[in-house]
């Protein structure tokens, strides 16, 4: 049967009627339901694919020494898949996705959440190295060209590399697409609450609410930049402190766990047995008893033989942190006992015994008080 097409003004009416008839003839809901049944049957495959991609990312991040907040994997939720499968085409003559299983690209998803913006570039390099990138899109750049509110995020559509899919364990995932999202913690916070924002366009949002949204977006971006700036400044200060310690210039070096470790490694000798938390604890103790700079600490314990002091108290040469504490009680005496973090009678009794052992060994007990040292002397 051949359809006849009218001419003139009736042609437009006939076309509209034909589109309307086609819309009503195509049941988007039924289309989505059938696709969802198929998706549920195959969802385990996409869960496994997401887990494979997550494992590759986890191992690669660890190998490169890149620290991130989290790496999350998921297969698309069935209800979310159904909503997407029910999306009409732009001309509303049928579904946007005639074959949803093949055409929806985020059925398998992995999200990498970083602490700071600088890490985004490192993750970008890693993704390009470990996967074949089919598509890369910067959602932040796209938002600048639209009137939508949204979050900064970089999205990748990737497949496993040919080298991997040549291996039996990866062969089932050849050509399978996974979406990888990469964003900072603050960008992720915006993305999570965006689902609850009813107004998606700044054209329709009330002006007062729009101003508040824009202020919030600006604050989040500013916070991201400031966190990055703080980390950069902290790294720079750490490098300067290490350089000063190496030159034995302790005057302006504030006591931090890293600076303390550098100082003790130089003055007492390295000790690989000491964990990072020991230096955190020791730095906190030094601040509690009144020390601010390494110059003060050096003045307090300078002139004491750490090996001799340790053997006078314990009979043996102790580890680095224990020797530091022995030196502190030798250099500060009762002041150290009075200000120590541990103020119980048992601890004080132990330290009093230390003082007696030091005196018995002929070691003079000092009375250094970092809080009483004139500023010019430090």
Mean pLDDT: 88
Number of helices: 16
Q: Tell me the total number of β-strands.
A: 5
Largest sheet: 5 strands, mixed
Which architecture of the largest domain does the CATH hierarchy give at level 2?
A: 2-Layer Sandwich
Computed over alpha carbons, the radius of gyration is 33 Å
Q: Provide the number of structural domains.
A: 2
The general outline is elongated
CATH topology of the largest domain: Beta Polymerase, domain 2
For the largest sheet, list the strands in their spatial order.
1-2-5-4-3
Could you state the order of secondary-structure elements as H and E? HHEHHEHEHEHEHHHHHHHHH
CATH class of the largest domain: Alpha Beta
State the main characteristics:
single chain; 378 residues; alpha+beta; Beta Polymerase, domain 2; 2 domains; 57% helix; 9% strand
């Amino acid at each position: 049967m051949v359809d006849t097409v009218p001419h003139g003004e009736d042609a437009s009416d006939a076309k509209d009627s034909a589109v309307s008839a086609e819309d009503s003839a195509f049941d988007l809901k039924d289309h989505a339901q059938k696709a969802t049944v198929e998706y549920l049957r195959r969802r385990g495959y996409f869960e496994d694919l997401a887990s494979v991609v997550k494992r590759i990312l986890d191992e690669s991040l660890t190998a490169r020494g890149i620290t991130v907040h989290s790496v999350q994997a998921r297969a698309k939720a069935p209800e979310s898949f159904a909503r997407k499968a029910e999306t009409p085409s732009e001309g509303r003559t049928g579904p946007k996705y005639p074959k949803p299983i093949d055409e929806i690209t985020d059925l398998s998803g992995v999200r990498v959440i970083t602490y700071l913006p600088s890490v985004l570039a490192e993750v970008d390099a890693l993704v390009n190295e470990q996967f074949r990138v089919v598509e890369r899109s910067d959602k932040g750049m796209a938002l600048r060209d639209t009137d939508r509110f949204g979050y900064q995020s970089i999205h990748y559509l990737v497949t496993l590399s040919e080298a991997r899919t040549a291996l039996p364990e990866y062969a089932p995932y050849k050509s399978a697409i996974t979406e990888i999202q990469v964003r900072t913690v603050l960008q992720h916070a915006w993305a999570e609450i965006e689902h609850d924002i009813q107004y998606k366009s700044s054209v329709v949002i009330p002006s007062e609410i729009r101003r508040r949204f824009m202020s919030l977006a600006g604050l989040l971006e500013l916070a991201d930049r400031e966190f990055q700036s703080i980390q950069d400044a902290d790294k720079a200060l750490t490098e300067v402190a290490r350089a000063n310690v190496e030159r034995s210039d302790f005057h302006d070096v504030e006591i931090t766990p890293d600076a303390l470790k550098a100082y003790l490694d130089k003055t007492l000798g390295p000790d690989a047995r000491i964990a990072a938390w020991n230096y955190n604890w020791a730095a906190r103790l030094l601040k509690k008893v009144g020390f601010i700079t390494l110059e003060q600490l050096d003045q307090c314990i300078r002139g004491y033989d750490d090996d001799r002091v340790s053997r006078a108290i314990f009979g043996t040469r102790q580890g680095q942190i224990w020797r530091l504490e022995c030196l502190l009680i030798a250099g500060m005496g009762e002041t150290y006992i009075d200000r120590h973090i541990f103020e119980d009678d048992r601890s004080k009794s132990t330290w009093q015994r230390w003082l007696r052992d030091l005196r018995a060994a002929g070691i003079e007990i000092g009375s250094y008080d970092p809080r009483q040292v004139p500023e010019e002397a430090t």
